[in-house]
From TrEMBL:
PROSITE patterns with a match to the protein in the record: ANTAR (PS50921), PAC (PS50113)
Residue span(s) of domain ANTAR: 41-102
Record protein name field: SpoIIE family protein phosphatase
SUPFAM superfamilies in alphabetical order: GAF domain-like, PP2C-like, PYP-like sensor domain (PAS domain)
Limits of the PAC domain: 512-564
Signal peptide feature range: none
Pfam families associated with the record: ANTAR, PAS_3, SpoIIE
Keyword set, alphabetical order: Hydrolase, Transcription, Transcription regulation
Keyword Magnesium found: no
Region called Disordered, residue ranges: 1-22
InterPro entries: ANTAR, Bact_Sigma-Reg, GAF-like_dom_sf, PAC, PAS, PAS-assoc_C, PAS-like_dom_sf, PAS_fold_3
Keyword Hydrolase: yes
Source organism per UniProt: Streptomyces yangpuensis
Length: 812
C-alpha cells in the first residue's frame, strides 16, 4: 500500500528511509493475491468513510443554506452565493461557517455546549475561527457534523454509530463506540457499533439481565460513568479483550425523562480525568443519539392534553383490569426535563388511599394529588425509574401516605408499575381490613398448627378448615370426624379424659379442653389439644359446638426432654455435692483449719490454713512438719493442681509419700526427686508444686529445695527477703528430674515463712509483684508469730478464691 490511512479518511505518506539508508538495498517483494485483496478492501473502506464524512459535511452546509433562505427570503442559489461571500469575508471554511449559522439559529443544547467548551478551554484551545486540518475541527463543527450525519441516518443505528465515531469521537482520541438499546426486561441489545472487530460485536449482541457491565452501570445509576482503566474496574464489556487497560465512558441516552439506551465510548489508553466541557460534549452526543432512537411521535413536550394513540389504548386496557389502575403521562419543562406525571385516567375501580372520589384526582398532577409521594425512595422515584428504564416494578404491602387537611394518612397497598410507550400504568390495590385480618388468621393458624371446626348438632353437619384435615392426616374429600367419634381415633388410655371432655361440653354445656394422642390413618401418633365451646340458641338449647385443634407434639416432646434434663441435672448436682463433701471431709481430716502450734527443738512452728470460699473449689494444698528419728526436722508445703476429690486425694498421696520418704534421711533435693517419681507413675493425671526443707537444730542450717513452688521468705530484724530461686520442675511433668539444693544458716529470732500461691496470687498482677507485696507486708509486721501470721492472712491481696496455707517457723 502507498500510505497510511487515518480514521477520518486522510492519507499520509509512508515514512522516508533513514539517513544513509539505501532504499534500493531491500528488494521489493511482488504482492501476493491475498495482499492485493487486502489493499482493495482497505481502499474501498477508506472511500466509504470519506464519502460518509463528505455527505455529513454537505448535510450541515445544506442545513445552513436552508436557514439563510428562511432569514433572507431568497432562492437556494442566492443562499449558496451568500454563504460563499460570508466565507470569504470571515476567512473560515464553508463547514465552520455552516456550524456557526446553525448554532446561532438553533440556540439549543448543542450550541450551548460548544460555546461553553470554547469559553472553558481558554487560550490553550482553538476557537471556532481557528480551524485546522481534518480531525482538528472545532467543537461546533464536530457536533453539528455528527448531528447532520445522525439525522440523515436516523433509521439506521449502525450508521449513527459510525457517524458519531468519525465526526465527533475520533478527534477526542476514541477508537470505538457502541450504542446499546435498553430492553424493558433489564437486558441490553447492541443496536449499533463502530471500531470493534466483527466477531466482538457478534459476541456482545445481547447482554442478559443481571450481568454487570459498563453500560449496565450507567443505566442503573442514570448518569455519566467514567472509568480510567477498564481492567481496574473489573466490569466486562465489549472490546475489553482489545483494550483491557483503556478508558471508558458510558452515558444514558434518552429524551423526555425516558432512557432509550446507553452510548459507550472506548479509548485505547488509560483515560485521564476529563474536564466538564468534554463530559458535556459527550452528553450532547448521547442526546443526539437518543433523537434517532426515540420512536415516539413528535410533539410539544410541555403539552399535557393531547392523548397519544398508545395512551388511548392503555386507558382501554386499564379499564378492563379487575384491579384499580391509573394511567400516567410525563410532564416536561421547556428544556425537555421530567418534572411530574399527570394522572390521565383513573379507572372505574380506582380506590383513593384517603377515600377521595376519582374525579378529584383524575387529570391532576401526581405530586399535587399525592405530595408525600416525593419522599426519598417514595412512589414518585419508583415511577420515574420505571419511566426512564422501562423495567417494571412490583411490591407487596407498600406504605402510601397522603395528606388530608395537612394530616398524613398512611395506607398499605400492593403496587405494580410498568411503562407502555410514552405512558406509565400504575396499579395499586388497597389492602382491605377484613381480608387482611382473614389472611393474618390463616397464617397464624398455619404457624401455630391450629385447625378450626364447627359442628351443627341440629343438622349433624361438621365443618373443618384445611389445616384441620392436615392435622388428622385426611384428604380434603374425606368426611370430618365428629366430636363423639373422637375416642375411636385416640389412644385407648385417653378414653377417660375424652369422656370427661364430652360430658362437660355436651351435657353440662361448659367450655372445655382436653389433650390426647391422636392415632392417624397413616400410623403417625400426634399429641393434640382440643378447645371447644357450646353455642346456644335463643331458647338456651345447645345448637352447635365450635372450637379448635392444636398440634402440641413438639411442645409435648420438648416438655418430656426438659423433664429428663431436669432429672439428669438434679442427679449431677447431687453427685457433685457429695463428691465435694467427701473431698472437704478428707481435707479437713488431714489438715484442720486451725491446727495446734508445733513445738520442736530449737524452733516453734505455727500454721494458718484458709479453705476456698466455696465448697466446690476444694483444693490440694498441704503442709507438714515432722521431727525425724535423726533429730532433724522436715518442713514442707505443697499444692496439687485442680480442685475437687481428685485434688484432695492427690494431696493425701503426696503428703504421706513425702513423710515416708523423709525417714530415709535423704536431703530435700533427693526427696523431691523420689516424690516426682511417685507423682508421675503412681498418681495418675496429677501435677503439683512443693517446697521441702531439712532443718538441723544444732547448727541452725536449713537445706531446702523447690519443685515449681514459690520460695520461702526470711524475716530477720526489721527486713524481709525471699530466698533466691533455684531450678526445680513441678512434680509429675517428667519422669526423671534432678532438683538442686541450697543451705541457709538461720539466726535466733529469725522467722521463716513457707506458703502456697493462694496467699499472694492475683489475676491482675504478675507473680513477682505479688511476692514483692508479701515481702513488704512481712517486714512491716511485728509481734509474736501467731499475730504475724494472722496479719498476713488478713492482709492477703489474693483474688483467685483458692485455698491458702502459710507456715511460720520462728527460730529459738
Amino acid at each position: 500500500m502507498s500510505g497510511e490511512t487515518t480514521r477520518n479518511g486522510a492519507v499520509h505518506p509512508p515514512s522516508a528511509p533513514a539517513a544513509g539508508q539505501n532504499a534500493c538495498a531491500i528488494p521489493q517483494q511482488s504482492p501476493t493475491p491475498l495482499g492485493r485483496l487486502v489493499a482493495t478492501v482497505e481502499r474501498l473502506r477508506r472511500e466509504v468513510l470519506e464519502a460518509q464524512a463528505a455527505a455529513d459535511g454537505r448535510a450541515l452546509v445544506e442545513l445552513a443554506k436552508g436557514i439563510l433562505i428562511g432569514q433572507l427570503n431568497c432562492t437556494p442559489a442566492a443562499a449558496a452565493r451568500q454563504l460563499d461571500v460570508l466565507c470569504g469575508e470571515s476567512g473560515t471554511s464553508r463547514l465552520e461557517l455552516a456550524a456557526d449559522i446553525v448554532n446561532q439559529a438553533s440556540r439549543d443544547q448543542v450550541s450551548e455546549i460548544a460555546a461553553a467548551f470554547v469559553e472553558g478551554a481558554g487560550a490553550g484551545t482553538r476557537t471556532g475561527r481557528d480551524a485546522g486540518p481534518a480531525g482538528q475541527a472545532t467543537v461546533s463543527v464536530r457536533l453539528r457534523t455528527a448531528e447532520s450525519g445522525m439525522l440523515a441516518a436516523a433509521s439506521d443505528t449502525q450508521a449513527v454509530a459510525e457517524s458519531l465515531l468519525t465526526n465527533a469521537l475520533g478527534p477526542l482520541g476514541a477508537v470505538a463506540v457502541a450504542v446499546w438499546t435498553a430492553v424493558p426486561d433489564g437486558s441490553l441489545a447492541l443496536a449499533g457499533h463502530a471500531g470493534f472487530p466483527p466477531g466482538e460485536a457478534l459476541r456482545w449482541r445481547h447482554v442478559p439481565p443481571g450481568v454487570s457491565t459498563v453500560a449496565g452501570l450507567a443505566l442503573r445509576e442514570r448518569r455519566l460513568v467514567t472509568l480510567s482503566r477498564l481492567g481496574r474496574a473489573g466490569l466486562p464489556s465489549i472490546g475489553h479483550l482489545q483494550w483491557p487497560e483503556g478508558g471508558r465512558m458510558a452515558v444514558p441516552t434518552g429524551t423526555g425523562g425516558r432512557i432509550h439506551g446507553v452510548l459507550e465510548i472506548c479509548w485505547p489508553q488509560p483515560l485521564a480525568p476529563q474536564p466538564p466541557q468534554i463530559e458535556r460534549q459527550v452528553e450532547a452526543l448521547a442526546e443526539l443519539c437518543a433523537r434517532t432512537m426515540d420512536a415516539a411521535p413528535p410533539g410539544d413536550p410541555t403539552t399535557a392534553d393531547a392523548v397519544l394513540p398508545d395512551v388511548a389504548e392503555l386507558i382501554d386496557l386499564a379499564e378492563g383490569l379487575q384491579d384499580p389502575a391509573v394511567v400516567l403521562t410525563p410532564v416536561l419543562d421547556p428544556e425537555g426535563r421530567l418534572t411530574d406525571f399527570r394522572i390521565r385516567y383513573a379507572g372505574s375501580r380506582f380506590v383513593d388511599p384517603v377515600g377521595r372520589p376519582r374525579g378529584d384526582v383524575n387529570g391532576a398532577l401526581l405530586l399535587e394529588a399525592y405530595p408525600m409521594a416525593a419522599a426519598e425512595n417514595g412512589l414518585f422515584d419508583i415511577i420515574e425509574r420505571v419511566h426512564a428504564t422501562g423495567e417494571p416494578f412490583r411490591a407487596e404491602r407498600m406504605s402510601l401516605t397522603a395528606l388530608v387537611d395537612q394530616i398524613p394518612l398512611t395506607s398499605v397497598a400492593d403496587i405494580s408499575v410498568s411503562r407502555h410507550g410514552a405512558a406509565v400504568l400504575l396499579i395499586w390495590r388497597i389492602e382491605d381490613e377484613t381480608a387482611r385480618l382473614a389472611n393474618l388468621l390463616q397464617h397464624a393458624q398455619r404457624l401455630g398448627r391450629i385447625g378450626g371446626f364447627e359442628e351443627n348438632l341440629a343438622t349433624g353437619e361438621t365443618t373443618w378448615n384445611a389445616q384441620l384435615y392436615a392435622l388428622h392426616g385426611l384428604p380434603a374429600t374425606a368426611p370430618p370426624v365428629r366430636l363423639r367419634e373422637l375416642p375411636g381415633h385416640a389412644h385407648p388410655d385417653d378414653s377417660a379424659a375424652l369422656g370427661r371432655f364430652l360430658r362437660a361440653l355436651l351435657r353440662h354445656r361448659r367450655p372445655s379442653s382436653v389433650s390426647f394422642r391422636l392415632q392417624r390413618p397413616d400410623g403417625i401418633t400426634r399429641h393434640i389439644r382440643v378447645v371447644a365451646e357450646p353455642v346456644l340458641d335463643a331458647d338456651q338449647r345447645l345448637h352447635a359446638v365450635r372450637g379448635a385443634y392444636q398440634d402440641i407434639s413438639a411442645q409435648h416432646w420438648t416438655e418430656v426432654a426438659l423433664a429428663a434434663t431436669r432429672d439428669q441435672l438434679a442427679h449431677t448436682e447431687a453427685e457433685s455435692a457429695e463428691r465435694n463433701r467427701l473431698a472437704l471431709q478428707l481435707q479437713h481430716a488431714i489438715m484442720p483449719v486451725t491446727p495446734q502450734a508445733v513445738e520442736a527443738p530449737g524452733m516453734r512452728v505455727a500454721v494458718r490454713y484458709r479453705p476456698a470460699e466455696t465448697e466446690s473449689l476444694v483444693g490440694g494444698d498441704w503442709y507438714d512438719t515432722v521431727v525425724l528419728p535423726s533429730g532433724l526436722i522436715m518442713l514442707s508445703v505443697g499444692d496439687v493442681a485442680g480442685h475437687g476429690i481428685e485434688a484432695a486425694t492427690g494431696m493425701v498421696v503426696l503428703r504421706n509419700a513425702l513423710r515416708g520418704l523423709a525417714v530415709t534421711g535423704a536431703g530435700p533435693g533427693q526427696l523431691l526427686s523420689w516424690l516426682n517419681t511417685v507423682t508421675h507413675n503412681l498418681a495418675k493425671h496429677v501435677t503439683a508444686t512443693a517446697v521441702c526443707g531439712i532443718y538441723d537444730p544444732c547448727t541452725r542450717v536449713l537445706r531446702w529445695a523447690r519443685a515449681g513452688h514459690l520460695p520461702p521468705v526470711l524475716v530477720r530484724g526489721g527486713g524481709a527477703e525471699a530466698f533466691p530461686l533455684i531450678e526445680g520442675l513441678l512434680l509429675g511433668a517428667l519422669p526423671d528430674v534432678v532438683y538442686g539444693e541450697r543451705e541457709v544458716r538461720l539466726e535466733p529470732d529469725d522467722t521463716l515463712l513457707m506458703f502456697t500461691d493462694g496467699l499472694v496470687e492475683r489475676r491482675d498482677s504478675s507473680v513477682q509483684d505479688s511476692l514483692g507485696h508479701l515481702v513488704n507486708a512481712a517486714a512491716a509486721g511485728a509481734g509474736d508469730l501467731d499475730a504475724r501470721l494472722d496479719r498476713l492472712l488478713a492482709g492477703s491481696r489474693s483474688d483467685t478464691d483458692d485455698d491458702t496455707c502459710v507456715i511460720g517457723i520462728q527460730v529459738g
